[in-house]
From TrEMBL:
Listed name of the protein: ABC transporter domain-containing protein
Keyword ATP-binding: yes
Alphabetical list of SUPFAM superfamilies matching this protein: P-loop containing nucleoside triphosphate hydrolases
Keywords: ATP-binding, Nucleotide-binding
Keyword ATP-binding among UniProt keywords: yes
Signal peptide stretch: none
Pfam families, per database record: ABC_tran (PF00005)
C-alpha cells in the first residue's frame, strides 16, 4: 500500500453527471473524500449510489463532470488506477466453481503479485477473515457471510489505497454485518480509505462522514452527528392508545414532515415547535387523547428531511 498524504484528497469530484437516455442517474455531484475516511453513501434504490461508484472506479464513463481518484483523472487514467483500487460489488462476483484458495490465487495472478508474496498475503487473509478452515471449499457452497468475507479478501488482496464497496452487506445476517464493519475499521486504521454505499441506517451511523443521495443529487454531506445536530425539523413522540388512528389523523397536516409507528408510539417529525399545539388539538378533535413528547433526532429523521422534496420531472432517476 502506497503512502498517502493525510492532507491530500483521495477522491475529488466536480459536476459529475450520468444520463441513460432521458433518465438522470447522477446529477451534478460534487464530492471530496479524505484519506482514511470511512465515507458512506446513504440512499434508497435508484438514488445513484451504484452508478457513482462505477464511475469512480472507471467502469462507467460520465456524461459530464470531472473525476480525480488518487491523483488519476478518470476515465482517461482508469488503467493506472486499478492497482491502487479495490472494488466489491453488491452480488458475489467470484468463481463459484473454484475453491476459496483457488479464487484468491487467481486474483493474485490478475494483480501480478509475485508468487511468494501472493502465498503470504493469501494465508494472512484466510486467517484474518476466518476462512482458513474453508480454503478447499467451493465458493458457491459458502454461506452468505462467508461469501462476503471471501469477496472482501479478494478486494483487498493487492493492498489497495482505496476500497469501494457497493451495498456489501445487503444479503447477510446482522452478526455478519457487525463483523464485516469491524473489518472495515481495521482496514481504515491501517491506512485504507473506504467509500461504502448502504441503505441501512445503523451502518450509516458508523461512517466517519456521510453523503445522502436522492434521485442522483447530493442532499447532505457531513458527519452523522453533525447531520443530526443540524436536523431541519423537530422529532416528537405521540403517546396514545390508538397510534394507527393518530397517524391517519395527522397524515398530511400542515408542518408534518414524516410519521412512523414505533411499537405502541407514533414518531413524528415536524417543521417547527409552532405546530405542536395545533396538532394536539387536531387529535383531540378526532377523539384521540395523546401526549406529545420531544424526541431525540436520529439519522432516519435526517434522511427523511433531506429526501422529502418532490420529484422535479419524470426524466430523473427513480
Amino acid at each position: 500500500m502506497a503512502s498517502i498524504d493525510d492532507s491530500a484528497t483521495v477522491i475529488r469530484v466536480r459536476g459529475l453527471s450520468k444520463r441513460f437516455g432521458t433518465t438522470v442517474a447522477v446529477d451534478a455531484l460534487d464530492l471530496d473524500v479524505r484519506p482514511r475516511e470511512v465515507y458512506g453513501f446513504l440512499g434508497p434504490n435508484g438514488s445513484g449510489k451504484s452508478t457513482t461508484l462505477r464511475m469512480l472506479c472507471g467502469l462507467l464513463h460520465p456524461s459530464s463532470g470531472e473525476i480525480e481518484v488518487l491523483g488519476h483523472h478518470l476515465p482517461k487514467d482508469a488503467e493506472g488506477l486499478k492497482r491502487h483500487l479495490g472494488y466489491m460489488t453488491q452480488s458475489f462476483s467470484l468463481y463459484r466453481d473454484l475453491s476459496v484458495n483457488e479464487n484468491l490465487t487467481f486474483l493474485a495472478a490478475v494483480h501480478g503479485l509475485p508468487r511468494k508474496r501472493a502465498h503470504q498475503r493469501i494465508e494472512e487473509l484466510l486467517n484474518r477473515y476466518w476462512l482458513a478452515e474453508l480454503r478447499h471449499q467451493l465458493a458457491g457452497t459458502l454461506s452468505g457471510g462467508q461469501k462476503q468475507r471471501l469477496a472482501l479478501a479478494g478486494a483487498v488482496l493487492h493492498e489497495p489505497d482505496l476500497l469501494l464497496l457497493d451495498e456489501p452487506t445487503s444479503a447477510v445476517d446482522p452478526q455478519s454485518r457487525r463483523e464485516f464493519w469491524e473489518s472495515l475499521f481495521e482496514l481504515a486504521d491501517a491506512g485504507t480509505t473506504i467509500l461504502v454505499s448502504t441503505h441501512y441506517m445503523d451502518e450509516a451511523e458508523r461512517c466517519t462522514r456521510l453523503a445522502i443521495l436522492d434521485r442522483g443529487r447530493l442532499v447532505a454531506d457531513d458527519s452523522p452527528q453533525r447531520l443530526m445536530e443540524a436536523l431541519p425539523g423537530r422529532p416528537l413522540l405521540v403517546e396514545c392508545d390508538r397510534p394507527r388512528q393518530a397517524q391517519q389523523v395527522l397524515e398530511g397536516q400542515p408542518g408534518v414532515i414524516a410519521l412512523a409507528q414505533i411499537g405502541a408510539a407514533l414518531r413524528m417529525l415536524v417543521e417547527d415547535v409552532e405546530y405542536e399545539n395545533p396538532l394536539s388539538e387536531r387529535l383531540r378533535t378526532a377523539g384521540i387523547e395523546a401526549r406529545l413528547v420531544s424526541g431525540t433526532a436520529n439519522l432516519e429523521d435526517v434522511f427523511v428531511a433531506a429526501t422529502r422534496q418532490p420529484r422535479q420531472s419524470a426524466g430523473e432517476a427513480s
